[in-house]
Give the backbone structure.
Amino acid sequence: MHETDDETTDPDQVRKHTPGGGVKPAAHPIDPNVPEEFGLVQAWWGNGKGKTTAAMGMGFRAAGHGYRVHMLQLMKGGADSVEAVRGEYNAIESMPGFSYENLGHYGWHGMQDGSKDDSHKDEAQAGYSRAEELLRAAAAADLTGELPLDAPPEDGMHLLILDEILYAADRELIDPADVITLIEKKPEHLELVMTGSHNRPEYLLDHADLVTNVRKEKHPIDEGQRGRKGTEF
């Protein structure tokens, strides 16, 4: 039986058939760059830990390639349950091309966490209005070209993270139909990532390209463990 190119173990042949050419990855300076295949809508929901973490991980990965990334966090301002300074903000501040802003409380609507339920809706609505502004900015920018890494988000971005927007919709702090409107307003080449909600966002399934359910098998919070510095904030 003759060995085919796909089955070869010859190192020289393997290098010809792998995208990286078989070269070990290495860090390079970060310069403005252009994504080749951005433009999808992602939704991350579920009762497990890691939705925001996964979104920020993608943000760091994209920024590492020189793409412009911005994260808008709804319902993640200050709260009594965690410290005012959190590690992800320090990391983002030091990352070229990655910026963030947050609105509202870090705590959750309907829970005894030091946040005020009566102001959650107003702040979620303000977050939605800001999301509309950011989408307009992205639509006005040339997303097929490089974007300055130190420019404000008003000048556009290649990847936009709307953190906890699905949670706000689930709690009826914003209308789920308005989430669909944001998707419909998304410019063609913008990668849009939405996170939040412990409940399956049925309204979103026909509008998102990637939907991930982050499921909990076990979590120390069920035994009374509070958020830990360095893992949860």
